[in-house]
Structures
1.
Amino acid sequence: MIQVLRSQKASMNQHTRSDHHSKGDTKGDVLHYIYGVFIRGLLGTALSAAAIGPVMAISPQPSADTLANSPDSTSPLSAAPQSSRRSTQLAGRTIQRSEVRSIWLDRETIVTAGSREGLARVFERFKAAGINTVFVETVNAGYPIYPSQVAPEQNPLTRQWDPLQAAVDLGKAHNMEIHAWVWIFAAGNQAHNPLVGQPASYPGPILSARPDWAGYDRSGNLIIPGQTKPFLDPANPEVRQYLFDLLGEIASRYDVDGIQFDYIRYPFQDAANNRTFGYGTAARQQFQQLTGVDPIELSPQNRDQRQRYLWNQWTAFRIQQVTSFVSEASQRLRRQRPELILSAAVFADDTYKRQQEIQQDWEDWADQGLVNWIVLMSYASNTRDFEALIRPWVVESSYRSTQVIPGIRLLNLPAAAALDQLQLLGQLATSGYALFAADNLNGEMQAMLASTQGENQQAAMPSDELAIALPAANNARTVCLDSGNEPQPAILLQLKKCDGWFGCDRHSQVFTEYT
């Protein structure tokens, strides 16, 4: 029943996005909706948290009844906005937490810090900016930043120290939560190779040692043309065990507060142009055993009824490889450390798009309670687009005990625009926010966060108004509308403080126009 209900809700979310980003192709929306329901019918109870496995039961031959009676539903669900305080269910007990004010601490910032002392200065900036949770990039491109007994090789740029242990210690000193941010299925990065003295063709330390663990596109390429990252085959039992061992090592050796799954998906694909992925040896063998067909022979362009059915089963098969991994990893980690907060960094795109392009069905993880937090990579250059990305998930949906935390990308984002997006989150009563990334925390952004989010914001506030000094921008002008103020230049932004945030109604308090 959960699967059917969630397909209705996901369909509603998908329509919301389609209305904003397209001209309203009603026929296409309906087809997308039917597809989403159909995929969940294929997955069925095989995706339940209690009885999940590396493969699912798929009928070798589709019957006429199966093709004619795909699950369907027409009643969309909605939910009230979530509270700004979240209730996290861990091992049968409920823990109340204040809003999450988090930041991704990227590998480049860690490497640039170079030592425990250098990292301490980074954490001091976080503290001043009001950060209370740090996602530390612990495994990047197949390299852990710490000396691992599981991974083939530590990142050469961090061998002289242990940044993860330093971050754990600094988190305790500053009363911040430390979460290990781990690349899951992405196993390398051609853009990273020159930094560690490797040629562009180097597949990364994992696939260099175990090339049989690789995933491939339908043409046999390790990396889809135009992309930079090779991916592991999620269907390979040895790949899964390696990743379970790696996650378990982090949880056992380091007193982290949480673990975040990143690249918990397949690489981006374009099925319309036959650019699809997932054809690792293990995946092909398993799917052929289940259906009698090698998936390399299937094409989304084939209009034959049976071929279309099998293609949809191949899509469902790959979705389940990711979901079943999340389920088993969650079960293992919670047995090992029941108090751990598990999160996933995911895309905010609509359900159909994610199923088709990256086989990431995170709503199912949230519905099953497999993770505590869903952290959206909801990156937008303006508040209107930002709201369109997050509203389906933070206002129009509800996921039991799983909290949805929107992400804001700081790169090339003016501080005033970032502030406007933060204001929106306050109005929507979200569980908090995640900032990407530490490398983009420039002086202007730091000053804005310190003034609005930092521990000294109350002291800096005259009566009920907060004055924030921002560098003037040639392409922006700010008009203050509260208290009868005259229009002000962009160097001064006045906001009214309400309900513990920094704006009750951004439309009536301040207006910033970018030209």
Note: The two ends are 50 Å apart (CA to CA).
2.
Amino acid sequence: MSRVGIPAALAYLCALCVTACSGSGSDSESESVGATPTSNGSTTEATSGSTESTIGTESTTATTTSTDPTDPTTSTTSTTSAETTTGEETTTGGVDPCADTPTFEDGKTPRTVLHVAKDGVDGPECGPEESPCATISSAAAKLSPGAALRLHAGTYGGDNYLSDLSGTAEAPIWIGGAPDEARPVLEGGGEGLHLTRVRYVVVHDVEVRGASQNGINVDDGGAYDDPEATRHLILRDLHVHDIGQGGNQDCVKLSGVDDYIVRDSEIDHCGEGGSGIDHVGCHAGLILGNQIHDLGNGVQAKGGSVNIEIRGNRIDRTISRALNMGGSTGFEFFRPPLTMDGVNAEARDIRAIANVMVETQAPLAFVGCVDCLAANNTLIDPQQWILRILQETVSTPDYEFAPSSGGIVRQNLVLFARGDLSTYVNIGSNTAPETFSFARNLWYASDDPGLSSPAADLPTVEDDPIVGVDPQLVDPQGDYHLSAGSPAVGTGLVDPSVLVDFDGACYDDPPSRGAYEFKG
């Protein structure tokens, strides 16, 4: 997979902008597809506010899409960024590689608006602002390409099940809160919102709380071998919290979703055995700029997931793994379906870049993940391990599974207390740790700098580490930016797969280690 220019998981989304301008871990997976909704009324008013906005500007990146987003050897595009080559000269076509991520939503506004309000009344004519609908399902039945469902402030029941919504690149469908109003709330039910077989849909500015199973659930309706079933999705500016009953329940569950973004949302207090964002067989995704905290796992990608970038997120206080790259999935839930004629994997090409993870049991877990990357993350006070290399899905007589292998861990900044750790690195059976590579990480044990080195636990020799030297953060208790004297400043190597730091600023040349570039 190419790692040049705009990250590969985003390049397909760049192509969409051009088109528009021209015209935990060990649990077996179980899921509900196509559940029937029920009603749940509530009258508690929302208290948190958000305003509707359009992200970024239209891109001029030219790309050609591949027909197979699950192919681990190629990205969803045949070119990355806007690079063109003439002879020996390479240019970027005027596109800033550090600019905000382009999406199919950019530069577009709804052609029509359907309103839902607490004092609305469902009926054939509901939807105009002067006669709003009462329920999401009633308004959603009227949605067409270019339409927005505007949910006005108030608290609405959960179990909102919507299927077969199809916008286009030129005319998406929006579902979300109204500008300049408090964020609407979906409360209770089995799930707050369940989307099945949707395309070119944006869900934004909504709070989801108190569901017993999942907060937001998006799936392919059981079409496990059809990457077009649910594709082109944006989830942004959401607050999903207090979900589940302490078990394997997820705040955001994505199954069989391709070409999508989850960004700028707060996700917290999900099931202790579940995840903030759980992927099963998802492809070409970006998890960007979210605040994820107080839950089981932070982000998990398994079940045949490929080409997902997890970038610039803050993840705090996970009971288990902050980033679970791979996992354990029931064979019947893989997307695409498992093959008996090749080598399967829980996940391939999952990239964790410029995230900040604080007080998590294990910030990084490679679990049956093949060719996955952890680069320029800042890891603060891990509670049991810094890194895990595990295999929870093993080969059977019918299906061969690749071991956790080919992982890359480079230019991360790790500040920890050695007394909190069991071991630096936990390596399980049926893995291929000898295929992992480590380079230019900074390791510092704040309680005993002499015990900073993880070398005895690493499966291979690390290239150019910084060990036992205080990283000189602005405030180790809360502000993890680098101070001017930090040994992390300017001591990395340029990595074309790592362009933007946690704050959205370009990394310098040479870059700093960790999630923050030093900007003075």
Note: The helical segments are 8-21, 136-140.
3.
Amino acid sequence: MKRYLLCVLAVLTACILLAACKKSGTEISEPTSESAAVVETPSPTPTLPPYEANVLTGEPKGDDYPEGQRITAVMVNNIVAARPQRGLSKAQILFEIKVEGGITRFMPVFNDYNDIGEIGPVRSGRDQFFQLILPWQALYIHEGQSVVMQQYALDYEYGLLNNNDGANGYRDYGRVNWAGNSYNNGTLALEHTMYTSSENIAQYIQDNNVDMNRTYNSTFFNFVDYRQENPVRDLTTSLDSNYSTKYGPVVTDGEYVEITHSQSYKTRFIYDSSSNTYKMQQNYSDGQWRNTEDEANGNVQLSFPNVIVLYTDIHTYPGHEAKDLQYVEYSWGGVGYYCYGGKCEMIYWQKGTPLEALRLYYLTDNGQCSDTPLEINIGKSYVAVVDNDFTVDFVAKSLDGVDLSAYGIATTETQYVEDEAEAGETLGMSTDDLTNAARGSGDAATSTETSSTSSYNSASSTASTPQPTEAPASEAVSQAPAAEAPASEAPASQAPAEQAPASEATTTDDGGIQIG
């Protein structure tokens, strides 16, 4: 009887379980070919090749790239009487900064000294240029140097990398300048006749056993990664393109860019959409604008995809007033502009100690310095470091309505005594002590109280003013990009130094900006 009851119970349990399985309404059926198909695993994202970019342009290294060679910089005269120059068109970066007497000087920088060709007129070295290449340990070529520059070379033990004879330069007494003047006919000064060449530089390196070996672990700027599918940063769609403070947009028109370096020296750029470059011109002593040309390269006009303008305090070194030797404030950073593709954006820049590299940053949506490194498009760059006093004269706008044939201001040069250091001459103090004295003697000491205006196409913004950084030399060396490391690393991003509270900005009557 018990066995009979157990059997009945088992049958009832089976019926209940069968009813439960069908409760959801799902019919049990043979699997279809679709449901039996194997789900394909997504293909892995392709691995990018190592980042191996040209240190000065961000372009991929070609077969002829001088791997493991330190970069080379040359000081080139830009007083009007020295124009046109030779060799500038082959530079990967061209710096222009004010020196004595209100004139400017050039420092072209090259990947490979073998590609320079003939260059000049070679002129004397100045520390405001040297400090920009010191972190990169470049070969620095010039004819003569200021006593401050000489002290920098001593303090930083630059040795044979600081060449003071124009890399065994030679005189071209018969060269004729733009106005038809030459040394041979008694109308051109001797200092406008010194030139050198790739061959002479190579001979200097060989004769003196100069160590030209250098491996760079990052690029000069934070370039757009050439490995991207479309390695171009369009400023109109950039991350800051929608930023518009109450003072105006961060990104605006920039087909016409004009930079004032002093009371009479100016540089301007006209955007050429067919080549996506800015064509360079400068004003002359007759008031005309003329193309900046390279007479050693078929009188080609200089052109650059990237134009960068950085504003800071520039004034005379204390104790060097008779020679008007200029001090450039690199410790605090400041506001600048980056122009590409017919557009300009307001940016922030920093450097810090002499051993720290130049760094560029985006602004935030309220006009402050962000911690996001600015991306520079691949290609050659023109970089101007300009006195804050002339921020008011910066122009970036559309070409519409611009009369390119109109005369500008005629160049003039203030009289001064050339500062050329004697062999063995020193300052009697370190460059750190001189910098500390100079920092408190100019506008930088009260930079948050000074004001400047800029005709930035009716755009405006505020920017913070960082305090000086006093990092010890050993710490600064670790931050410099010239450390020996594999060149396959991607562009390094560096956080900005600590900032002071931002200064207020107001809109001027002409629609420009005033920071102060």
Note: The helical segments are 2-21, 127-133, 147-155, 198-208, 431-439, 473-479.
